[in-house]
Amino acid sequence: MFDQLYKSIHDHVALSDDEWERCKNNFRPKRMLKRQFLLQEGDVCRELAFVEKGALCSYSVDSKGSQHVLRFAFDGWWIADLQSFFTQKPSTVNTEVLEDSELLVLDRKNHERLLNEIPAYERYHRIILQNAYVALQQRLENALGLTAEEKYTRLIKHNPEFLNRVPLNLVASYLGISPETLSRVRSNFTAK
């Protein structure tokens, strides 16, 4: 159950066997079914979740009821509403399970303990947060400066699993385009 987490941590930092055991013992396995919510708007995010196996999606809902996909998480990825987790204020997003998933969750208390007691874990999380910030900035730049075709091309180049594991209406929302535009772009793309 901890294979993906072990790989993720050891791909970034070196942990001794003792540190790994201490780290692992702070996580709680959590199995979730498709369509369940890890987090709902209005709730406070109290856990970080690492995806051992599965797929999740975080999205906000505007005043007209439209979903706006913020992020996905697949095997080996972290997911949480960090704004709510760090401020302990109600979340403005929903995190929904897209396929039956196996998660490893870590509450704030245990997360803080690991950060304080295991320097390599703190370094690992700093790297993960830096990478998340870089990805967020790239996503913002793409949303503001790319055409629908360019967004789709980047998506299939960098995240091809999105198309195999995520409904197309959610892919369109993630790209900031309508499902009809995504359909047209995909048709043009396969025709080339």
Key terms for this structure?
single chain; 192 residues; alpha+beta; Jelly Rolls; 6-stranded antiparallel β-sheet; 6 strands; globular; cAMP-binding domain of CRP or a regulatory subunit of cAMP-dependent protein kinases; cNMP-bd_dom_sf; RmlC-like_jellyroll; cNMP-bd_dom
- Shape by Cα distribution: globular
How many helices does DSSP assign?
A: 9
Question: Which structural class is indicated by helix and strand composition?
Answer: alpha+beta
Strand content: 15-25%
| CATH homologous superfamily heading of the domain at 3-118 | Jelly Rolls
Helix content: 40-55%
* Overall pLDDT: 95
Protein name: cAMP-binding domain of CRP or a regulatory subunit of cAMP-dependent protein kinases
Organism: Fodinibius sediminis
Domain Cyclic nucleotide-binding: 36-115
InterPro entries: cNMP-bd_dom, cNMP-bd_dom_sf, RmlC-like_jellyroll
